Amino acid sequence: MQPNFFVLRLFIMAILSACTLSAHALDVSRDNVKAFIDNMVESHNLQRNEVVDVLKQAEVKESILKAMRRPAEKSKPWHEYRKIFLNKRRIEQGVAFWQTHGDAIEKVASDRGVPTEIIIAIIGVETNYGRLKGSYRVVDALSTLAFDYPPRSPFFTKELENFFLLSREEPVDLLTAKGSYAGAMGAPQFMPSSYRNYAADGDSDGSRDLFDNWDDVFASIANYFIDHGWQPEGPVVSRASADPRLAERLELNKILPVYRAGFLQSQGIEFDRMGHEDDLSMVVNLDGEDELETWVGYQNFYVITRYNRSKMYAMAVHQLGLAIHEGVLSLD
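Predicted structure:
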């Protein structure tokens, strides 16, 4: 049977068209791109040709836009989201990670007051203990979201700016550095602005390497938490019980610890373990498998949400940390 070359040609054209739609070179002649280039030259004294050369090699990717529209925190209920991180394999890997890096992390924990299990849990949730640091080029992720994702264009434009500046300060290559679909980098998944502002030189070698230097990674996570108000030895969260209507009424749309714990108690919230009645707190409602789960989150719970602005994320980090800690204790 002879091939139908017309049909074959249409098929090939369709494939090429799909590829074009899924990824294409950034057009540096666009007004918003030219404005970005002007700003980098005028505000930061970067060479125009160097900025243009990098951006010409950036690709706009539809897969990044799709991922941005459906993060797990928004697409899954808590009881499904929890299973991603609270499972036997990830807990055991966390215990093994503690055994391998325990001395270094415990020193940071002792110096900074951020528990070892929280530092490990952050890495476990973010990159599965450094195994999955991201497969997107950071320049592609940030360029796509800065110039083709209007809902958060200002934020990602600023992050792209910080990415260029970071490359002048640390050994981060603009064209080869890889990270998440949102442009987060390294084992702790720091955005460029966080990398510049909070990364720490944990081994005093003169650079801050969040890709391959664990000492820097541990120190940087602790530094981020302390700078965002972590309270050493303070409570994180308490399981609570209340009438669902009361719990829903007291939960705020924004993630803020604005209630005194004593006030919540006076309103009918019952704590499994209550700290000081003056502790700032918030009501956290999560969709359990069979019923609504009500929790009270404190200042340290709020700090975890500064890493990722999601109550489910903060709860996953906290519970994974507890499970890892229990796993380590069981080895003794």
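Summary: Residues 237-310 form a domain with the Lysozyme fold (CATH 1.10.530.10).
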